[in-house]
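Possible regression after last week's pipeline update?

I re-ran a chain I had predicted before the update to compare outputs. Posting the input and the new output here so someone can diff against the archived version. Not blocking, just want to make sure nothing changed silently.
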Amino acid sequence: MIRLMEVLLHGGTVVSGWTTRQIHEVVLGNFRIGEERYGLNQLRYDLRKLKAHGLLARDGKRYAYRLTEKGTKVALLFILFHKQLCGPLANSLFHHQPAAALQPNSKLETAFHKADHSIRNIIQLLEAA
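New output (post-update):
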């Protein structure tokens, strides 16, 4: 869904909207994934869900789609959250784990320690299940 939102967001300059086939080709091409991994039926399902939540609208009577104003805001929020917060936090789990003995000097360090601890707890719970 993040990939789909990113494609639709970057395609904001398309005047007549995107057809389903165009969106599918761009998603597969930009993210180098195969059709067996993200098929046309899955794309249609995702488009219906976005439309049901008011994030996507059809262009007139054509089967061409574009993000609504609400959809643009939500897509930006999801993409920025995913790239700026989730990515670095997930990457930090493999490269640097903060020492519990160190006393954080700032609110940012305290938040980082709390987030790292919470992520480790979730991973342990998933491993136990």
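Follow-up from reviewer: compared with the archived run. The chain is about 65% helix and 5% strand. Marking as no regression found.
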